Amino acid sequence: MNRKPTIRNIACGLALLATAGAGPVFGDPTGDQTVDPLPAWNDGQAKQSIVAFVAQVTKPGSPDFVPPAERIAVFDNDGTLWAEQPMYFQVLFALDRVQELAPQHPEWKDTEPFASLLQGDVKGALADGMKSVAEIVMATHAGMTTAEFEAIVSDWIATARHPTTKRPFTEMVYQPMLELLAYLRANDFKTFIVSGGGIEFMRPWSEQVYGIPPEQVIGSSIKVEYEMRDTGPVLVRLPELAFFDDKEGKPVAIHQQIGRRPLAAFGNSDGDLQMLQWTTAGQGPRFALYVHHTDAEREWAYDRESSFGRLDEGLDEARDKGWTVVDMKQDWRLVYPPETR
Amino acid sequence: MNRKPTIRNIACGLALLATAGAGPVFGDPTGDQTVDPLPAWNDGQAKQSIVAFVAQVTKPGSPDFVPPAERIAVFDNDGTLWAEQPMYFQVLFALDRVQELAPQHPEWKDTEPFASLLQGDVKGALADGMKSVAEIVMATHAGMTTAEFEAIVSDWIATARHPTTKRPFTEMVYQPMLELLAYLRANDFKTFIVSGGGIEFMRPWSEQVYGIPPEQVIGSSIKVEYEMRDTGPVLVRLPELAFFDDKEGKPVAIHQQIGRRPLAAFGNSDGDLQMLQWTTAGQGPRFALYVHHTDAEREWAYDRESSFGRLDEGLDEARDKGWTVVDMKQDWRLVYPPETR
User: Fold this and answer.
1) Does residue B293 sit at the A interface (CB-CB below 8 Å)?
2) Which of A45, A113, A299, B130 is least buried, going by the fewest C-beta atoms within 10 A?
3) Tell me: the pLDDT tens digits for B272-295?
């Protein structure tokens, strides 16, 4: 897996600064020098709104002060913390698994969607939409123990490369969002992922890449079953959906797994809209932010028409309600972390 | 709700001591005086096994050292952290709710199990076993928003009294276990509840009473649905079970919600057996403990024949495998915290 000393150092540095205590981490506590906790963000409304909100809720004695235990921040993953084009990375993982498993499944040569996939026709295989995706996911994500699946994901994430940038997927994360995660944690926020992606696809690397431990990763899941074998107990992954963590599912999952309404929510698509609605409906100051993919040159530009990460209804509601909308092209000085090789 | 300054002070004091760093919190860091972190525990095998385990996994440089992020401790609730006789306290809550709601349900007069309940015949009402319990739970726990249910639970827990001791239920917690929770946290363990009881029945008071925040409370749950009303979004509780967190369900819930295998597990019944098996099947040192209810005088004495909290198979397996079994009568100097009134 890719080690990211730079990112971890930023987080650690901010944590040290945070021990100074009062207000958001923005200036060096010695007062001699100003340290910008969000250097990959250009100065502008988006950055200012983030810093102002953190100042508002962390200033002791202020009427809007929120105790650290209630500083919950939730982040979508695909398109919010890392890229999601040309398709969700977990779908790319599943496609790779089909190739890998094909020798054990001679019947796939004559069964769709596998037959098309094995002939390299991804579009044809996915023409059927969610039905095909679900079949591919179940065929590649179930039927093994949770420990076996974790090893498969860890191997893949350490070696696979993005089809167009050729970078490891763990370097397709957004540097400004890594800084934002670290900045919030330095201000005693507890950061959670709330993703439509699979929990067990994210947990093997979320701590190293995002600094988010497995118990703070919420996502979609398939059923698992406890089984006592001669070698001891295992949990076996079953080809059956347990929970789909998207749209209305996100506030439900937040409620079931966190049990507190978030103070701040970050997303990029209509799948995040209910999470942002639920967050901002709480009493007192709340913060909602959409990442708007406007940068065709450094990343991708898409919104109302995209099959992955469509942002349509959400964009209108964000403008109506005055939520922060990040214009990736204008607001981000950097998109990805500098290459480490 | 009952405020428990004493308990919180213990936790805080231990946390301060823990900043000394190396090894388990046991002695005053100045070296002048020995502070016992578990004063409600008599010296004996149970206490010694706890302290030895904590020393083993927290000593820097030791081959068995476990990094703080992996120090997960899971606790059953009913019969492990608080009492569960003459029946689970959540059942007592449900029975109180039936009385409260009866005026709005004239049909209950002629419908079992409600008719028997309203005549004061609890035994008759529950004669049908789980079917009756499920009907009573759904009738009293569903059909309102999550915010409304939280208020109902908070009101009840603040005012209801145990039928025989007449103490508030939040004082029917075990002082030795409160100390154990604080001791583990002071040694950088993250403490979780993993209970067959309802998540939303526990969360309104778990932080104040146990120091365990809502996001670390795992339990059984019913389905909730996101609904946009004129006044904003709400989550509505539906009369349908989402997850039953008992027996095989406990390792499943631990996996889905924590995503790490615990280092230590604490229970009191056969419903906890799979959680203890799953915990101790991990690599390296692991710890499993059963609370055995042996104290008919100060609490209750029950095990293999009890309808609530039966401990039969688990007691045999604990003895086979050398797990720690707390003999409540012998091992606990105190059972409940001193009365605050």
Assistant:
1) no
2) B130
3) 999 999 999 999 999 999 999 999
